[in-house]
Design goal:
There is one protein chain. The chain contains 15 helices and 13 strands. The chain has 393 residues and is α+β, with helices and mostly antiparallel strands. The longest helix is centred in the C-terminal third of the chain and has 21 residues, at 258-278.
Length: 393
């Protein structure tokens, strides 16, 4: 792959939640702002640059943040509004960009390779940036280079409201002085391991033999080594909006065992929510579907604030099932569908309880490492026991 011919843009809305709140309430402009929940148990979902100057950062307990910045204004988040603004920006980008990927609710990659022959890539991206700012009212920064990872790091260096192009022959000189923590996929634990052995800058990291990093960090060591040397062949994947995710179970023998059926619904919700969080998405509509033994099929639907939290959606699913199952008749199928999906961090739905955030993070970490079935609620374990010998599709 000839990286010299690639032109990859990374665009990121500056302090997205805070910037949205400033559109809603312009009096917040220029003031230290925290988007989160209650002052007692809430967590910072987003914060303005004015608060970051005091050491405040995302995922910090709000009590801690307010000790660092006592004058900060705490605002409750509005995920529905954020979703609408995100879609607005997506539509603007879709009008102009030949290929674009929506990486999160406020982050995009664009592949504009070849455009330099007709229209300067940096000039084109600058004009797209101004168009987004004009129509959405939101500040946005971008980085332009030959790879996704370098462009993302360039955006980080350009913020706030900046733009930075790293030409092919400038990549290594740009990367060398940066902290290894700037590399995408280098999290806190990896950064700690590298710092412990004296690897703090990308220059030092790039000089370490790849096999040494693999022994130190596992299979991720190879990818991190390549990115430290400006090598990242990851393509921009054209964005397509998936509208829903769902799960259904058809019984081999029709059933009226409501305890088992409800436990099965709980199990479905757990898996769907884990999938949502893994893809950094949230849902706003939930539907329960049943099919009676005579093949009559019925659904019940509910709208709710954007979420990907098991404990919220399980309650809703069981309420919907109680409404839709209104006959004393055996069932042959049950299902759950989550729709109205958009990119968003699930912490926005949990910012009233730091302990819940930590619980979900711990459960998801275990599931990612050992499999999605390794952690379950007690009620869904009952479903597994009852399914043995009954059989489902």
């Amino acid at each position: 792959m000839n990286f010299n011919d690639r032109h990859i843009v990374h665009m990121d809305i500056d302090t997205f939640f805070v910037s949205c709140q400033r559109i809603i309430d312009p009096s917040l402009v220029g003031k230290p702002v925290i988007v989160g929940g209650s002052r007692e148990r809430g967590v910072v979902a987003s914060c303005s640059y004015e608060t970051r100057n005091y050491g405040v950062h995302s995922a910090m307990p709000i009590r801690t943040a307010l000790r660092l910045c006592p004058d900060a204004i705490v605002v409750k988040g509005d995920m529905e509004y954020y979703g609408n603004k995100s879609r607005e920006i997506t539509e603007i980008i879709a009008e102009d960009a030949p290929v674009y990927e929506k990486a999160s609710i406020d982050e995009f990659y664009l592949d504009i390779s070849g455009m330099d022959r007709y229209f300067g890539c940096f000039k084109w991206t600058s004009e797209l940036k101004e168009k987004i700012i004009k129509h959405s009212g939101l500040p946005i920064s971008f980085g332009l280079s030959s790879t996704k990872s370098v462009s993302k790091m360039a955006t980080s260096e350009a913020k706030p409201l900046g733009q930075l192009q790293i030409k092919f022959d400038e990549v290594q000189s740009f990367l060398n002085p940066l902290s290894v923590s700037k590399i995408p996929m280098v999290g806190a634990s990896t950064h700690k391991i590298l710092s412990r052995i004296g690897i703090r800058t990308i220059k030092t990291l790039s000089d370490v033999p790849e096999d040494v990093l693999i022994r130190l960090l596992g299979k991720n060591g190879s990818s991190i080594h390549r990115k430290a040397n400006g090598i990242d062949p990851t393509p921009v994947i054209q964005h397509s909006e998936r509208k829903s995710i769902s799960s259904e179970r058809t019984f081999d023998r029709d059933s009226m065992d409501l305890l088992r059926i409800k436990a099965l619904l709980v199990q479905m919700v757990e898996k769907l929510c884990f999938q949502l969080r893994s893809e950094e998405k949230v849902a706003s509509t939930i539907t329960v579907k049943i099919r009676y033994t005579n093949f009559d099929t019925h659904t019940q639907q509910a709208k709710l604030p954007y979420t990907s939290c098991d404990h919220i959606l399980i309650r809703t699913v069981l309420d919907l099932f109680a409404k839709v199952y209104d006959r004393r008749m055996r069932l042959r199928l049950v299902g759950v569908r989550l729709s109205g999906l958009l990119y968003g961090n699930y912490q926005i739905n949990l910012f009233d309880d730091v302990r819940l955030i930590r619980l979900y993070q711990a459960m998801d970490h275990v599931r990612h490492r050992f499999g999605s079935d390794v952690v379950k609620r007690a009620s869904s374990l009952h479903a597994l026991e009852r399914i043995k010998g009954v059989g489902v599709d």
